[in-house]
Write a structure and sequence with these properties.
Blueprint lengths: L1 H10 L6 H13 L8 E4 L5 H5 L9 E5 L9 E5 L2 E7 L2 H14 L9 H11 L24 H10 L9
Parallel strand pairs: 1-2
Antiparallel strand pairs: 2-3, 3-4
Length: about 170
Amino acid sequence: MQLAMNEMILAGQGNVLAPLVAAILGICQFFKESSKFLFHQTMEHANVDDIEKDITLPLSPCISFAGTCIFKCNSFYLVVDRHVIINNLANPYLALVVLFAAYYVLNVGYPVEIAATLEFLQRCIVKINPEKGNKIEKKIGKKQYVGPHPNVISFVNELGLFEWTEQQ
């Protein structure tokens, strides 16, 4: 968290969207999830072909950016299954909007590696609150959540944003 804040202060001066990115990185840290499943960094002068050849990209939808620091980047890419779907998104806010649209349009579940962060953003920021269920990928042999992710419920209750009702 401190690293993200230091980067934001140093690199994001004058960037009005830097606090948004820092907050999302902080949410990832809070849930102990890897932000690389949300924001994936590639080499500084990477083009679409370079991004698609990057075998470290997750298969799930993510935002790729080329550069040394997300706070200094001005070109973002929506990547799905290691293919650039939309390139040259101007800022991280637009990239996040497009990312959420991709999850819903493509009817893709959230990867478990970043599920709590995405569910928190979905329910508390974007205000999409389904009556039941969630978009977390189903994994064979793993515990499944019927409603909201328990870590999201705890975090939201601590923040005092909502009163969750038990739905079964």
